[in-house]
Specification:
Blueprint lengths: L1 H9 L6 E3 L4 H8 L7 E4 L5 E3 L4 E3 L5 E4 L6 E7 L4 E4 L3 E4 L8
Antiparallel strand pairs: 1-4, 2-3, 2-8, 4-5, 5-6, 6-7
Bound molecules: zinc ion.
Length: 102
């Protein structure tokens, strides 16, 4: 375990990431509801991951979510002054639960 932590500290990219739950507010505003517990399937490796466990890169002009299994880009969100652009071509599906009774 200590070895794994040391390896992660040596990866310069890790410092630039949060997990998907760190961008939960942005995702909620884009998709209209809580998304961090939502499962989604990576279109690259077919792994199903919870959005909250995806790696979020937030230092660029937008937010990029990457698959925790293969590290490919799953979702990109860019906010401009007049629009929000959502690129979901890296995801095969997102399973968004409806609240009971709706
Ligand atoms: Zn993947």
């Amino acid at each position: 375990m200590e070895e794994r932590i040391a390896m992660m500290r040596d990866d310069p990219a890790v410092d630039l990431t949060v997990d998907g739950s760190g961008v939960g507010g942005l995702l909620a505003s884009v998709f209209g509801g809580e998304m961090t517990a939502t499962p989604g399937q990576c279109a690259h490796c077919n792994t199903v991951s919870i959005v909250g466990t995806m790696r979020a890169y937030t230092r660029g002009p937008g937010v990029v979510l990457r698959c925790p299994a293969c590290a490919e880009v799953v979702i990109r969100i860019v906010e401009t002054p007049t629009a929000t652009i959502v690129d979901v071509r890296g995801v095969s599906y997102l399973r968004i639960e409806r609240a009971a009774g709706r």
